[in-house]
Amino acid sequence: MTKATKSAKKALKPEKAKIASASQMNKNTLLTPETLPTPVMAGRDFLSNLDMSAAELRAVMDTAHSMKRGKWRGVKPLSGLSLALVFEKSSLRTRTTFDVGMYQLGGHAITLSNTEIGLGTRERVSDVARNLERWVDGVMGRVYLQQTLHELADHAAIPVINGLSDMLHPAQLLADYQTIEEEFGTDLRGRRVVYIGDGNNLANSHIHMGILTGSDVTVVTPVGYEPNAGVLMDAVQQGTRITLTHDLAAIEGADVLYTDVWISMGMEAEADIRRRAFQGYQVTPRMLDTLAPDGIFLHCLPAHYGEETVPEATEHPKSRVFDQAENRLHAQKALLYHLMGDMKPRW
Q1: Stretch 251-269: mean pLDDT, rounded?
Q2: What is the pTM of this model?
Q3: Architecture of domain 172-326 in CATH?
Q4: Catalytic residue among 198, 300, 324, 332
C-alpha cells in the first residue's frame, strides 16, 4: 500500500536584574511553532536505520540534542495525535519513553499488549493494521519477528516504527549514537565502535549505523554467533567495511565498547548452551581499562548481571549506560517529530 506522505517585572536589585536578563535570553533561544525544523521523514515507516539517509539521520540527531537541551520546551507539535504501542515483548524503556515522549510533544499513546491483540493468532496482522490506521496516527511495535512489522507497515497508511524485533533494534541505536556524539562530537568517521557478545538485533543495527555514520564497527562474537548475513551484505553493497572477529584483543583501544544480553526473550531454551559458548566474553572493569583513555561503555539494558557484564562495569567511570537509557526519550521524541510532525489531527 502506498503511504500517505505519510514579560518579566523589572527587579529592584542588580543581582536579580542580572538573573532576569539571563532568563529572558534563554527564552529567546526556545523554539516556537514557527521556527521548528521541517520533518524530514514525514509519513514514512522506520523499520531499520537504513530507512533514513545519512542526512536524515543528522537531522534527527540534531533534533534529539536540541530537545535534550530544552529548546523544545513549550511547543507541542504532535498535539491531537495518537500513537499505538503494540507489545508482544515486555518493556521498561521502550514503553516509558515512547509514552512520555508522545505526552511531552502534546500527543497521546495507548499501550496494547499481545494479550489484548493476539497478533497473527486472535487476529490477522493485516487486519490489526487496517483497524489501527483508522484510529491512530502511528504505530510502534515491539515484536518477535521483523516480518510482523513489515506486514503492519504494508497494510497501514500511517508510520510504523520498529521498537524491537528479532532482526533489528533501530530506535535503540538512535539513543546509542546520541550518547556517542555527546562524548565525541557529530563526526564519528573512524571512531572505533566495538560490539561484543551475541550477533543479534543490536549487532545488526550497529552495522547499519556504521554504514550511515562512517564509524569503524567491529563485532566480536563466539564462533557460530555472528550477525545476520543479509545485514552484512547491506554493508558490502554500501562499500562499508565491518570487522568480524572472535578475538577479544579487538577491544583494546576502542572508543566505544557495547554489549547486550546473551539470552534474549524467546531464547530461554538455549540458556545453558549460550552461557557456555560466551564464556570469556563478559564485560568487566578490567576489560574497560583496555579501552581508549576517553573510551566509554554502553549497554542497552536490561543487564543480566553475572552473564554479559557485572554491576561494577555499568557503574564504572567509563560507563554511560544510564545516560544512554535517558537518551531513549530524547532520540525517540526526535524520531516521532520527524515522522509525524506535519500531521494534523483528524477530529
Answers
A1: 90
A2: 0.90
A3: 3-Layer(aba) Sandwich (3.40)
A4: 300
